[in-house]
Amino acid sequence: MFFDRFLQWKKLERQTITKRTFRQYRQLGKGGFGEVWACQVRATGKMYACKKLQKTQVKKRRGETMALNEKQILEKVNSRFVVSLAYAYETKNTLCMVLTIMNGGDLRFHIYNIGPAGLRKEQVQFYAAEVCCGLRHLHQKGIVYRDLKPENILLDDNGHIRISDLGLAVELREGSLVRGRVGTMGYMAPEVIDDQYYGMSPDWWGLGCLVYEMTAGRPPFRERGDNAKKEEMERRIRAGQIEYSPKSFNTQTIDLCRSLLTRDPEQRLGCQPSGAADVQSHAFFNTVNFRMLEAGLVVPPFKPDPKLVYCSDVQDIDEFSTVKGVSLDCADDHFYSKFNTGSVCVNWQNEVSDTANGTYGSASAANR
C-alpha cells in the first residue's frame, strides 16, 4: 500500500511540464539570452519567475554550455540564500527555467536609486551576512560562484536576499582548482584577471567588493562617473590603493573589506581551511546570530513596499534584434533533452507541501 502511494507520488512529480502548467503575468526584465516573466503554477497557485532563453539567441552566442551549466548547478542547490530552480522545460522557441520569484529588486537598484548612494549600516551587515551564508552553501557543494556583484543579489517580498544568475558558476572536484577569466570587470579578483588557478577565493574577493559598494555607494576600484578602460581597471585591481572615507566606513567595516580584498588569495579572509566560518566570526558580524539567520528567523532591516516596482522600466530596454542566419536542427535536440527535465524533486515537494498547508501564492505582486 505504501509503495503504491509512493509510485503515485513519483508519477505526479514526474509529470510532463509545459507552458500550460503555468499562468503568465507581467514581464520582470530582460537579459542577454531572453526575458524573465512572473508566472503562477495553475495547480498550486505558487508564484515563480520564469527565465526564458531564446533558443536562437543561445545558439548564436554559443551559450549552450552556460545555460545547461546554470540549470544543472541550480538543481543541486537548496538554500534560502540562493535562487531555487523549480522546473525546467522547453517550448518551440525557448528554454525555460522556473525560479524563485524575487519582487524586491536587486541590490544595485537599492544602492543607487533609493535616497543617497549607499545603504544603511544595518542593511550592509544583514545583506553581507546572508550573502556569506549563500556562498557557504555553494562552497560546501564544491561550487565557486565567480560573479558576485550587486546586480546578482535579489530581494524577496520580505527583504531577504538570494544569490542569482549562476551561469558562470563551476563545480569543482574535491581539492581541484579551476582557471578562467570570467566575471564582471571591476569585481574580478586579481588571480582571475591574471588567469591563475583558483578555488573559492574569487567569491570572498567579490564579497569584499560588495560590502565596500554597499557602504561607499560606489565600487572599490571605480569613482562615480568614471569610465576607466579595461587595462586601467586591471591595473587598479592588481595594485591600486583603496580609499576608505571615515564618513562611510567604521573600523570594523574597513578591517573586513581589507581582509577580503587582500590581493594574495592565500592570505585572504575565507580562503583558509575554516572557509566561511572565519568570515562569519569577523567582528563586523558580531551582532549577527547566524543560526537564527540560516533558519529564517531574523527580521530584515528593510521590507520592500508591495506597491512599488524596484527596477527600471523594462520598456526602456531595447528589444532583441532579429536573429538571422541561425536555424535550429536535430543536432540541437540532444542539448534540449538535457535541459528539458521537468520538475526539481525537492522544490516540487516543498511546493505541494506548502499547498497542503494552505500557503498559496498570490498573483497580486505579478500584476504591479
Description of the structure:
The structure is a single chain. With 368 residues, the protein is of the alpha+beta class. The protein has two domains: 13-102 and 312-367, 2-Layer Sandwich (Phosphorylase Kinase, domain 1), CATH 3.30.200.20; 107-294, Orthogonal Bundle (Transferase(Phosphotransferase), domain 1). The chain has helices spanning 2-13, 55-60, 64-76, 107-113, 121-140, 190-193, 201-216, 230-239, 251-260, 276-280, 290-294, 333-339, 345-356; strands spanning 22-30, 34-41, 47-54, 85-90, 94-99, 143-144, 153-155, 161-163, 170-171, 342-343. The strands form three sheets. The protein has a six-stranded antiparallel beta sheet. It has a two-stranded antiparallel ribbon with strand order 6-9. Helix 5 (121-140) packs antiparallel against helix 7 and helix 7 packs antiparallel against helix 9 (251-260). The longest helix is centred in the middle third of the chain and has 20 residues, at 121-140. The model is unreliable at 314-322 (pLDDT under 50).
List keywords for this structure.
368 residues, alpha+beta, Phosphorylase Kinase, domain 1, 6-stranded antiparallel β-sheet, G protein-coupled receptor kinase, kinase, ATP binding, Kinase-like_dom_sf, nucleotide-binding
Oligomer: single chain
CATH superfamily of the largest domain: Transferase(Phosphotransferase) domain 1
Structural class: alpha+beta
What kind of sheet is the major sheet? Answer: 6 strands, antiparallel
Taken together, the total number of domains comes to 2
Strand order of the largest sheet: 1-2-3-5-4-10
Distance between the termini: 47 Å
EC number: 2.7.11.-
Pfam families: Pkinase
Protein name: G protein-coupled receptor kinase
Domain Protein kinase: 22-285
